[in-house]
Amino acid sequence: MKAEQTFTIKETAVQTGISEDTIRYYEKIALLPRADRKDNGHRVYRQEDIDTILLLSCLKKTGMPLQEMQPFLAVSADADPADYPELVEHLRNHRENIVSQISSLQQVVDFIDMKLEQGKYRRDCSDKSEDKSKSKNISPVEMSYFSGSAKMNN
């Protein structure tokens, strides 16, 4: 019988792109089970642990708070989503939020691109060379970038 491959915390950190300190923290807050230990006290991780850390990393990249990740860890990778309707609904809502964030960020990118294309950035930051007669009308979309902050300041 072949022994299961194990990894040190350093090897696990390299494979997952998550720092050793973060892995220890995930254990401390019970997102990860306590790692087994060698006789010398060093932590030992298995492929299953690495897969869990990668799942946590993926969920974290979506902006999901750590405390909301716990229920997803209890579900095995080959489970039928229909058996977990509340998790599916939570993931759908989270996905909608991400899509909304992507849309907002795309508007920001579009606005930056427009500003770059206008070429109004000068090294001296003065208005001397600006031709006031050529000012561009601001579209409703561009205006929406400022309306949110203006409402907050009122």
UniProtKB/TrEMBL annotation:
SMART domains: HTH_MERR (SM00422). Residues 6-75 form the HTH merR-type domain. PANTHER family: MERR-FAMILY TRANSCRIPTIONAL REGULATOR (PTHR30204:SF69), REDOX-CYCLING DRUG-SENSING TRANSCRIPTIONAL ACTIVATOR SOXR (PTHR30204). Gene3D superfamilies: 1.10.1660.10. It holds the Pfam family MerR_1. This is MerR family transcriptional regulator. Keywords: DNA-binding, Repressor, Transcription, Transcription regulation.
